[in-house]
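Action item from last week, closing it out:
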Amino acid sequence: MVAIRPAQASDLTAISALDARLTGSDKPDYWREMLAPERHFLVAENGKGALAGFIAGEVRAWEFGQPAAGWVFAIQVDPKTRLKGVGSALFEALAARFKQQGVTRVRTLVDRKDHLILSFFRAQGMVAGPSLQLDKELP
């Protein structure tokens, strides 16, 4: 069982360390920005009070005429606690906060080659949305 609560500045070292371990990229400034008041940044703690995972997002009105939606920016779960409901608990807690803000949709962007995260979001009931990401490499 995990406890879900808002992230605090004192959590940033553990959040940044977990993310760096899983992605290979250390970005403490990015995680500090997630503490902004308009964002939802949640952590899951295991029964011993240690970080089991985190999720971050916010409600945004998409720039191309889409109605406001909740956007998931990031989710990470400690591999030792995967398949124990931590990610689902974080997602459900974030979705509840989005719903309290009056939105009826949740969106995110994923790399189509990242089968782990694709499987996770599909298990949460997410499917391909109405937008198509376009991409161009800059010289």
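Closing note: Helices lie at 12-23, 28-33, 86-100, 115-123.
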